Amino acid sequence: MTNPEVRVHEDIEGLAEAAARLFVREANEAIGGSGRFAVALAGGSTPKATYEILASRYASPSDLDWSKAHVFFGDERAVGPDHEDSNYRMAHEALLSRVPVGSVRRMRGELPPPEAASLYEEELTTFFGGPPRLDLVMLGIGDDGHTASLFPRTPALDVDDRWAVENPVRKLGTTRLTLTAPAINAAKNVVFLVAGEGKAEALREILEGDADPRDYPAKLVRPASGPVWMVDRAAAGLLS
Ligand SMILES: O=C1O[C@H](COP(=O)(O)O)[C@@H](O)[C@H](O)[C@H]1O
């Protein structure tokens, strides 16, 4: 296991540009090695600018052979693909409708959550022919320290024998779908994108505090290498 690496960018634009470059670099490296690139996208609002830069500046096959990119998701809300809260919808509008990706494997937020989670686990194991090993997992954090849909003190945090699960989040009154920490930690590369002052306290606790990981689930992300934290100056404001 290596230490997390923190890269501070001036603002969200700088962060998004650097994240897009990292995405393209990792994709080309994976395609050069195995002939394909398997990535899990983050939802929420922070990665949108990165996805838009990928679609506008890196759409050309000379930058990236998108047909070899296979797109998974780190988490999904309990809504259909057209809903404004859908992580798939955001990624589709910002990126996936604009580049010719090899495949898109979304979590089916419109189905009963246990069924959707089982289907996603099947999707992962079929694609990888066994335990998933994504080339890149992109993540964000919430100001409560959640990542993907691993929320503080929720059942999914204790799961060590599944790759994707439904996760009841009592404080939101809903059940989310999420990759588990073991699925994330099995990835070759994991990158967090974090922007804004509202994330500063959580980021400090995750990277420098000694709180229980169950209260700050992003602490459970400990892949063999990294993770890389790409943060803006506002989010990094409380780091030592
Ligand atoms: O609910 C979610 O929150 C996190 C952070 O979202 P952001 O809007 O603050 O960027 C996100 O990473 C996750 O995918 C999403 O479902």
Automatic annotation (TrEMBL):
Highest rank taxon of the organism: Bacteria
Reactions catalysed according to its record: 6-phospho-D-glucono-1,5-lactone + H2O = 6-phospho-D-gluconate + H(+)
Pathway recorded for this protein: Carbohydrate degradation; pentose phosphate pathway; D-ribulose 5-phosphate from D-glucose 6-phosphate (oxidative stage): step 2/3
InterPro entries tied to this protein: 6-phosphogluconolactonase_DevB (IPR005900), 6PGL (IPR039104), Glc/Gal-6P_isomerase (IPR006148), NagB/RpiA_transferase-like (IPR037171)
SUPFAM superfamilies (alphabetical): NagB/RpiA/CoA transferase-like
An example molecular function term from Gene Ontology annotations: 6-phosphogluconolactonase activity
Entry keyword annotation includes Nucleus: no
Pfam families, alphabetized: Glucosamine_iso (PF01182)
Domain Glucosamine/galactosamine-6-phosphate isomerase: 11-226
Keyword Hydrolase attributed: yes
Listed EC numbers: 3.1.1.31
Keywords recorded for this protein, A-Z: Hydrolase
Gene Ontology process terms (BP): carbohydrate metabolic process; pentose-phosphate shunt
Sequence similarity: Belongs to the glucosamine/galactosamine-6-phosphate isomerase family. 6-phosphogluconolactonase subfamily.
Role, per record: Hydrolysis of 6-phosphogluconolactone to 6-phosphogluconate.
Name this polypeptide is given: 6-phosphogluconolactonase
Lineage of source species: Bacteria, Bacillati, Actinomycetota, Rubrobacteria, Rubrobacterales
